[in-house]
Protein 1
Amino acid sequence: MLASEIKTKIIKKITDTRYYSIILDCNPDISHQEQMSYVLLCVDISSSPRQVNEYFSEFLKEDYTSGKGLFDVIVDELKNLQLDINDLRGQEYDNGSNMKGKH
């Protein structure tokens, strides 16, 4: 319940500022399952001076680390968080050889 309440407050901050960015980082865990950390960034308009805040959303299990697979995960997660993909202003990928054209 606490995690759900915190996530609700984070989403409220993001929707208040409207625009946001995401950071995705894929790494295998100890059982060799690919997991992706999902981080949301937005400008905190309630603070002075304005500052960029990063919010860890969750770890997502990822079976397909191709560009298409990551895209599908991003779209699904944004729908789950009820965030408009049209307000997404930046994307960052770490350890993403698939984003370099390898896969």
Protein 2
Amino acid sequence: MARIISVHCRLCRRSGDKLFLKGERCFGPKCAMERRPKPPGPHAAQRRRLSDRGVQLREKQKAKYSYGLLERQFKRMFSLAGKQPGVTGDNLVVLLERRLDNVVYKLGFADNHAQARQLVSHGHILVNDHKVNISSYLVNKGDVIKWREGSKKTEYYKTIVETIKSKTVPAWLSLDRENLVGQVLALPSSDVIETRFEPTSVVEWYSR
């Protein structure tokens, strides 16, 4: 399974915004964007103002980093969004939100997308009582997401049972906090999804 191997804090500093790639660390004083908000590199202060193409590239990179995708994976999602009716940028955001690894993260089963992707790929998550180990699987309305019975015996699961009580869940998802069972109440709409990037700039980048 391909994955991003760059230092996550450098990705946030390079993007100029918090992308919340390291879970709870991003909310505390140890966050790199709090300690060193400038871009990495010895000449960060001398860098020129970004061109329009530079802004588009930065927004595209922020979108990739936010969901933990590589270029090939992200471009495939963009291509799928372009084939659907409606606004391509909005379609892209909805598709990214519907990914199984993102849903696992949004339900509070993981602290970040990388951790959520690992849970899915290792077979800990069931969708409608069937094991799904493909992170890019797109959930649909009515899908039930829960833990595999064998995975409930792990120390990680026991930790999640305690910490999940303080986590919030998006309105398009529901969560049974006692049994750690989530359900997709409705497909998300672009107007209720909080993004760390500008979808229009992403569309403009690929439309060159």
